[in-house]
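Thread title: Can someone regenerate the structure for this chain?

I was given the following input by a collaborator and told the matching structure tokens would be attached. They weren't. Posting the sequence so someone can regenerate them.
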Amino acid sequence: MESIGVLATQTNWNGGQRLTLNAGDTATCTTLSPGQLYGIFIYNSAQNQTSATVNVNWSNSQPPCPITVPGTTANAGLASIGFVSGTDTQTVSVSIAPNSGLAQVDIWLGSVSMPINTAGLNNQALQANGELYPFSKYSRYYAVPPSKWISLTIASKITQFVSCQFREEKAVVYVINETSNGLLSGQITSIGPTAKTAGVVTILPTSLQSITNTLQGDGSQWVWMDADSAQDSQSASIALQSM
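Best answer:
Regenerated them for you:
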């Protein structure tokens, strides 16, 4: 009797678009740029308690980096983020092993320039007018502030709300209403020497329901992305104010 194999797919991921990977699937991006930091956003979308181990291959001389995304029901899980720098590699592949059963994840690339293909994401400009904008799951906000000081505020009434800010070669992970346990093990993974360098990826937690950070624009683009579940993002907001 013939064995039944997994029908694997190989996806061109040069647009950094949101897509779904099942067991045996691979997505490959070959257009990472030197001097830019990228976040691989990974949500478990199996709709059951099946955890998924995602392998990130970024170097021919280094073994792939495994990232385990805990199983969840009702699509209620948090994002795991793997940070990789275009200074270390032009190509990154994300895959799930063929023997992973019912494992399934949604992934996309985040940076100041990614994803190019924003289908499936809420991608919009963040106006520096002090207005509170909803910061829901799948949200991506971008702004090009002038050379002046600006104030960023992210607020959430939900415990441990996580979002990510990108600016060229650096990222800041904001954790609002942080618990005493901090981030989950494996939720944030730095891959490669540049991403592991001190100050490239900064985790900025607060025990309060909001965080305000003073930034200085210089005509370059900034990007903010939600990294939490739909239910945890219901009351979250983001605002940018010129000073």
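The chain has a mean pLDDT of 89.
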